[in-house]
Amino acid sequence: MLVPLSFLSFYASVALAHFIVPNDDQDMSGLVVNSIPYSTRVKYMRLANEALFEQSGPCPFAAYGTIIVNHTAADAVVCRGANFRTGDPTIHGEISAINACTKVFQERNMTASEIFAAWGELSIYTNAESCPMCASAIRWAGFKEYVYGTTIQHNYNAGWGVMTLSSYDVFQQSRQLPGWQTSMLGQILTNETDPLFSWQYNEVSRKWRYEQECMERLTAEDKV
Ligand SMILES: *[C@@H]1O[C@H](CO)[C@@H](O)[C@H](O)[C@H]1NC(C)=O
Ligand SMILES: *[C@@H]1O[C@H](CO)[C@@H](O)[C@H](O)[C@H]1NC(C)=O
Ligand SMILES: *[C@@H]1O[C@H](CO)[C@@H](O)[C@H](O)[C@H]1NC(C)=O
């Protein structure tokens, strides 16, 4: 069968458009939660991405980066984590950040009960929605806030093996737990987090889109 060329190029452009699976683009510029403006959310989500590159290099396959932030006064990043692929299946970015903060607090000679209480003052920023294991850890910790970028649904659509239980559902089923219900802010800065997860399971995207971005980051780092 003869297929007209115009059809082929149309098909190619449609296929290309789907290489980056977008989240629904919402204008959240007016979003203020716990008196923190959206611009601050954007700033810290970018820091979560940067923490990823600092820990895992410019083009990590497991592109999950997490920081834990004290917004109370100093707006300080207390610690950070990434999926280090050590072989320990529990070391996702969020768990590795929680472990890193626990160590920081122990080094400050805080008692176990002081450390348990500390999470309630802190915000966890992670560039992708937490899997059920990490969402549960976040809820057990009783973080003040949980802020994520790319959704589980996005990564499912992009070909990742995921557990399709949303953080929303984990939190809904956790309401009987004592302590604060963590405030959850999803889909923050997805225009910058989605591309980090969109290339791994797509050969053409891997070659054309992500490698270019990686090269830019490599070049920027080389210049330093
Ligand atoms: C923690 O305790 C140890 C042993 O008592 C002490 O040497 C160290 O200076 C303390 N660290 C801080 C940050 O207070
Ligand atoms: C957060 O910062 C405030 C103000 O500096 C400080 O009092 C508090 O101890 C910090 N909390 C944690 C968990 O580090
Ligand atoms: C992503 O969106 C934010 C607004 O939420 C904007 O400030 C930023 O420039 C965008 N990033 C890119 C890479 O286009």
UniProtKB/TrEMBL annotation:
Q: Which Gene3D superfamilies match?
A: Cytidine Deaminase, domain 2
Which part of the chain is the CMP/dCMP-type deaminase domain?
39-163
Q: Which InterPro entries match?
A: CMP_dCMP_dom, Cytidine_deaminase-like
Gene Ontology molecular function, alphabetical: tRNA-specific adenosine-34 deaminase activity
* UniProt signal peptide: 1-17
Q: Which UniProt keywords apply?
A: Signal
CDD domains associated with the record? nucleoside_deaminase
Question: GO terms for biological process?
Answer: tRNA wobble adenosine to inosine editing
- Report whether Magnesium shows up as a keyword of the record: no
- Which Pfam families has this protein been placed in? dCMP_cyt_deam_1
The protein, known as: CMP/dCMP-type deaminase domain-containing protein
Supply the source organism for this entry: Pseudopithomyces chartarum
